[in-house]
């Protein structure tokens, strides 16, 4: 993970309008007139199919399996010439997919995807790299927050966009907003370290920042608090999915192999990732990889394999988000915007770990 990396995640509580702005960005400007460019394109002379993947943020440990797949040649073995397009603080994830510049993309969370779908963008979700969001409320043993009820009477430091998520959690758990004091958090753990707050918000995978707290810090993820969802959501346009289905299927097959290899060979996987992206802190990444694997794999992946998502869980996410008026333009119908088709086609190769 880059030292200053703070992944944008819909579960981290963007307020409704900011959420729509960051999720949808300039897509409305482009319209949907670039359909001619949506296909993955003709095979190159080498016989490979070019495929461009737009990521939501900078390349890091959330993509370790994808990076391993590229570096170890798994995508090439699938007949793909894969290009990774990193995101960043000022990058837009959705417009390159809508215009056909990228054939697929990865949102940091399914909440971002569902907001885009609710706003009428023609998107389709086909796999999820993380089983839950690593966004968490971080506290210390002297004033631990392990459950939502522990928030009562506490001071919580959140960034301005984190208030919406906390409002959802409090509403979901029957907590009066007046019973929780909020202060504004900067980019580090200072409010917790100096006693200004009982908890700060951050990402379980940002172990570089968490190291300042010592080894005994406590995390309550948004998932722990009942705000369910998935992260690292792979998607395309509806039309692009049909036109590029074969290439997208081969991508997930290759990525699944990469994640399986990384799970079994964590030290080597981190080294491969850091060799490919030298800006990453190798020592930090070695300390983080076990956490990453605990998010990418869980009870459902033991049965269904890496990349799995449960449609009923997404329907519950829609219900919760809608209860807080999180959908401004429209409420998505999950069955219309997600598919298990690629997961079913790759069932035999996706690691069940």
Assign the CATH superfamily of the largest domain.
Periplasmic binding protein-like II
Tell me the β content. Answer: 15-25%
Give the overall average pLDDT.
Answer: 90
Q: Which parts are unreliable, with pLDDT below 50 for 5 consecutive residues or more?
A: 1-38
The first-level CATH class of the largest domain is given as Alpha Beta
Number of helices: 17
Radius of gyration: 20 Å
CATH-defined architecture of the largest domain: 3-Layer(aba) Sandwich
Indicate the CATH topology of the largest domain. Answer: D-Maltodextrin-Binding Protein, domain 2
The global form is globular
Strand order across the largest sheet: 2-1-3-10-4
Order of helices and strands: HHEHHEHEHEEEHEHEHEEHHHHHHHH
- The helix fraction, in percent, is 25-40%
How many strands, which pairing sense, and closed or not: the largest β-sheet? 5 strands, mixed
How far is the N terminus from the C terminus? 23 Å
Tally the structural domains. Answer: 2
Outline the structure in words.
The structure is a single chain. This protein is of the alpha/beta class. The chain has helices spanning 16-24, 27-30, 64-71, 74-77, 94-98, 110-118, 163-172, 190-193, 207-210, 238-243, 245-264, 266-276, 282-296, 299-304, 311-323, 334-337, 341-345; strands spanning 49-55, 80-85, 104-109, 123-130, 135-139, 155-158, 181-184, 199-203, 218-221, 231-237. A five-stranded mixed beta sheet has the order 2-1-3-10-4. A five-stranded mixed beta sheet has the order 7-6-8-5-9, with no helix packed on it. It is globular.
